[in-house]
Specification:
It holds the Pfam family YjgF_endoribonc. The protein contains three helices and seven strands; from the N terminus they run H-E-E-E-E-H-E-H-E-E. The chain is α+β, with helices and mostly antiparallel strands. The longest helix has 22 residues. It is globular.
């Protein structure tokens, strides 16, 4: 039987990608002391890289928001796998760290980060409201446009 969050995902027609295996020496999720710490997730959708390049050069803010949303969908997929499929165990989205591959004169990282922030509220409601950092960087692994890490409180 689908849980409350699965029903929200289905009702809103939000599809989750397959949780990707790590590509280096780390685990995607560590659960400790009631918190789930998620490794950075990038703009990959079921093995296919999307949005490679820099914001302010290759992509506009709106495309950056789409890229950030993909990162968020990967975060939710990883969390679902780590929680044995039960997203109803999420008590709160605590914090998001959003890294934006930025051209030197790009200053709208917070607007890009709204793509993942809006997703968390859309899926988890008030429990999706979180603290956040939005940081511009000169490069990201594999030249992806956005990477997001996260901390969730879980039951």
């Amino acid at each position: 039987m689908a849980g409350r969050i699965d029903k929200i995902l289905a009702d809103k027609k939000i599809e989750l990608p397959k949780a990707a295996a790590p590509v280096a020496n780390y685990v995607p999720v560590v659960i400790a002391n009631g918190f789930a710490y998620l490794a950075g997730q990038v703009t990959v959708w079921n093995g296919e890289f999307k949005f490679t390049g820099k914001l302010g050069k290759d992509f506009a803010v709106e495309q950056g928001q789409q890229a950030a949303r993909i990162c968020g969908l990967n975060i939710i997929a990883q969390l679902k796998a780590a929680l044995g499929g039960d997203l109803d165990r999420v008590k709160r989205v605590v914090r998001l760290g959003v890294f934006v591959n930025s051209a030197d004169d790009f200053y709208d990282q917070p607007k890009v980060a709204n793509g993942v922030s809006d997703l968390m509220v859309e899926v988890f409601g008030d429990a999706g409201k979180h603290a956040r950092s939005a940081v511009g960087v000169n490069t990201l692994p594999l030249n992806v446009a956005v990477e997001v890490d996260a901390i969730f409180e879980v039951a």
